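Design job #97: recover the sequence.
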């Protein structure tokens, strides 16, 4: 995969991520307005140019295409089209091996728990309600809970969960077949129209579906899938989270994450270790509070000099760290580079819309 990054002032072409990189996960940090989202979008375009498939989990409008939208973007509004993955259907691998219904229910309950902590009794009730749902002979796979399961689950201790996610228990439609993902495309899965918490839940559910899919799919035939979580700090990124699992093991399954957030200062040390597994890190201008720590990580021998460089980064400029290539030369030290918004795409700003039918 020849994934392009920004440009330096000493080499005429874009710097690339080495094909020998530990993995193709990206972690991007920097204060507000320093150019993280624009850089992500440039990387996304480059990934699709090398035939990867990009899926943007666009919760809470964190990933708007204000400056340009590439021609190969496919817009999928979940509120109107339904959740594009049949969450409660076990995934079957090409060799016939399949998820058990219990595994499926546990994973979905875990995704709910990741979005907002559930008590033990609430978890059990959600599990039981979904079990009743899938055991119903009339279950079409198009809802999370059937009406009879909803009635049974609506007890006192489950009531807060019911209230919080009423909209999705009663109204969210799941599509019977997963969205077909083609190489060379960017899928903008837009969760807008739901409240903030629900959008985060839907993103957790989508992430966990991708992880399930990657494990059961014949990955030797699968093209690489890159899932984008811009401002991922609101998603669960603890040790047992789906994000952590994908960072640790996604490489084997060709599933990668593109993560961006303003700062890691609030992230627990153990979780920082997990996030640091990302093979390529881009540091846009950090907060004063974080500068020294980042400078040490980038160049422990010249901390003061690095602090100065970080402090002076302009919008669109960053220090990249990972296994990078300038032509045939591999570079592993921190490298200052600038992203430019590719010109020819500035003109188009209308997203083509994908529906289940047109994606086939
Ligand atoms: N490489 C670039 N070239 C030119 N302008 C840029 C570049 N990167 C960012 N900008 C300008 O800065 C604005 C903010 O960039 P961007 O949305 O990427 O910031 P951000 O780091 O994602 O901020 P936030 O954390 O608030 O989401 C853009 O709308 C654009 O006008
Ligand atoms: Mg942004």
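Job complete. Output follows.
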């Amino acid at each position: 995969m020849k994934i392009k990054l920004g440009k330096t002032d000493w080499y005429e072409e874009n710097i690339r991520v080495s094909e020998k990189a530990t993995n193709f996960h990206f972690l991007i940090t920097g204060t507000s307005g320093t150019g993280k989202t624009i850089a992500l979008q440039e990387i996304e375009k480059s990934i699709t140019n090398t035939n990867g498939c990009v899926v943007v989990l666009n919760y809470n409008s964190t990933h708007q295409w204000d400056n340009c939208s590439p021609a190969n973007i496919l817009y999928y509004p979940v509120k109107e089209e339904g959740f594009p993955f049949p969450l409660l259907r076990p995934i079957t691998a090409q060799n016939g091996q399949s998820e058990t219904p219990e595994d499926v229910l546990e994973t979905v309950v875990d995704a709910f728990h990741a979005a907002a902590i559930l008590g033990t009794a609430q978890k059990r009730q959600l599990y039981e309600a979904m079990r009743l749902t899938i055991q119903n002979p009339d279950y079409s796979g198009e809802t999370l809970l059937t009406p009879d399961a909803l009635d049974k689950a609506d007890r006192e201790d489950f009531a807060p969960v019911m209230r919080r996610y009423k909209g999705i228990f009663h109204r969210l439609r799941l599509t019977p077949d997963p969205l077909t993902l083609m190489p060379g495309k960017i899928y903008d899965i837009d969760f807008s129209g739901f409240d903030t918490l629900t959008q985060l839940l839907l993103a957790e559910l989508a992430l966990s579906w991708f992880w399930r899919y990657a494990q059961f799919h014949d990955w030797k035939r699968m093209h690489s899938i890159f899932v984008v979580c811009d401002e991922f700090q609101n998603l669960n990124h603890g040790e047992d989270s789906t994000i952590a699992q994908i960072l640790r093991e996604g490489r084997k399954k060709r599933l990668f994450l593109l993560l961006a957030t303003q700062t890691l200062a609030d992230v627990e040390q153990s979780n920082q270790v997990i996030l640091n597994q990302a093979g390529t890190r881009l540091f846009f201008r950090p907060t004063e509070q974080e500068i020294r720590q980042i400078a040490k990580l980038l160049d422990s021998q010249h901390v003061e000099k690095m602090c100065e460089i970080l402090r002076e980064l302009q919008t669109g400029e960053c220090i990249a760290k990972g296994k990078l290539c300038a032509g045939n030369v591999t570079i592993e030290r921190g490298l200052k580079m600038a992203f430019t918004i590719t010109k020819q795409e500035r003109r188009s700003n209308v997203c083509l819309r994908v529906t289940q039918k047109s994606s086939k």
